[in-house]
Amino acid sequence: MVINSGVTIENKGSFSSAIANGWYDVTKAGNGSEPAPSADAVLTINGGNISGGKITVKNDDGGKLTINDGTFTQSESNLFCIYNANVAKITGGTINGCVGSIESNPSSEYNKGEFTISGGTFNTDVSEFVADGYILNNGTVEKLGETNAVAKVGDTYYKTLAAAVTAAKDGNTVKILRDVNTAERHDVVGKKLILDLNGQTITTTIAERFMNIRGGGKLTVTDNSASKDGKIISPTGDYIFVVFKGELDFQAGTVDARGYWQYDNNGTTEYYGNTIVLVYGDTNDTENYATVTLGENANLIATTKAVDEMPVGEAYAIMVDKNQAESAYGVKVDIKGTTEHAGLYVNGVVKKTEGNVPVFNIYDGAVVDGQIYSAGYAKWNIYGGKITGSTGMEIRAGELNMTGGSLTGTATPT
Predict the structure, then answer these.
(1) Which residue from 61, 80, 98, 85 is spatially nearest to 18, judged by alpha carbons?
(2) Rounded-to-integer distance, Cα 96 and Cα 51, Å
(3) pLDDT band at residue 196 under the 50/70/90 scheme
(4) 357-381 exposure pattern, b = at least 16 Cβ within 10 A, e = fewer
(5) Which residue in 42, 210, 368, 393 has the most C-beta neighbors within 10 A?
(6) Which tens digit of pLDDT belongs to each residue from 377-414?
């Protein structure tokens, strides 16, 4: 059956559907009021005004529904405007009301739960049904492109950052196209990727480990926009980047880390910023197991105030931790960029003193606004730069080779 424009169908009650396509219960068809199915029930709607009913348009058992245009209205918020029990697609039209479907079951003959939307305007969230290559943008389903996609890899557009990172192949660039909020974790495993912030802002609401580089993966973060003001904001998260057998090359852009933790110090609540980059070393004495580079156009910024305006102590811009067995072999950190209210830290559990122990290289032009705290063993090569913190540098284990730059402690001696 085909319904074309110029048709008006209104069901003023809520006891039956305005339009029902298919069988109410195909398992009982032929034994009562419904005839046994000999073929799928096919309904195409090309226009018209259809409203009301318990369900405005119901695609039932064995139904195949296509909506190309028309206006569909369900005024009751607890009732469906469009509901699918088999195979349905919407390519256009205006749907005012809830849209739903049974769960996908491709092996079923009459209740497949296949529902795709590639066009149309909606006043409810239908994102779960939007077809690949399309996106729900301010209530309208559109083909993904430069103006509505979150990211692209080559000439392929993606509606989420996670989808782009997952689909990207070794050597690809994931280019951010607009500001995006994400609650997903992203893994770069066994491949080299470039994340081009492109002057946009990524806001991650995940509690920790927003981006994980492991299994020999490499992530290069850059910003090829004219403005160069791309950033990653983490309102509450900890360990925003985690490097575990891999490489993080943060060449350009800003991480704005606003999270913090607190503890009770003899009845006084104290706050400290969360860790931005966490690096794990190897248990075996290997080279270049986990490397981090903070490029000259990169900034790692930690919050200075809690929500109650209380001061927040320095965070760790980069923290080196053991894998196990008191070792963190193969860690190398190169600092050429800037940290604000965030220092450099080696956990005191890192105790191995020979072999490929952690190495920090701080170069001319670097600005570390936050103390260096080497509680665990590492080699520190300071060739230049400006290091400022409450204690400029505290070494409890390790070696210091300083041939340039400056170290300044700002705390008042007691």
Answers:
(1) 80
(2) 9
(3) very high
(4) bbbbbbbeebbbbbbbbbbbbbbbe
(5) 368
(6) 999 999 999 999 989 999 999 999 999 999 999 988 77
